[in-house]
Write a structure and sequence with these properties.
The protein is of the alpha+beta class and 95 residues long. The chain is built from four helices and two strands, in the order E-H-H-E-H-H.
């Protein structure tokens, strides 16, 4: 019997939402200034995870939903909140 692959969620942004996402983050300096740069790095991370045997799920971070979630949780919109949001949304999408 083989173990099920470990699942991880990756924060994912649409091209259209990326400028708003970046503007709303208090740690925007940690996000690539251009969507194409972010996308290249994100796709690389996704491939590395899959090559390591992980089941990778893209978790879309939509600006309004994320902002509301942060308000509801009393969190600043930053990297830690993104990690928590992705974990919460991954748990909801896990069978």
């Amino acid at each position: 019997m083989t173990d099920a692959p470990r699942r991880i969620g990756l924060p994912w942004y649409s091209r259209e939402d990326y400028p708003r996402i970046r503007d709303m983050m208090i740690d925007r300096h940690n996000l690539a200034p251009a969507y194409d740069s972010w996308l290249a790095a994100a796709e690389n991370n996704e491939n590395v995870g899959r090559q390591a045997g992980l089941e990778v799920t893209r978790i879309i971070i939509e600006p309004d939903a994320f902002a509301q979630w942060c308000r509801d949780k009393g969190l600043e919109p930053d990297g830690a909140a993104r990690v928590q949001y992705v974990a919460a949304m991954s748990a909801l999408s896990t069978p």
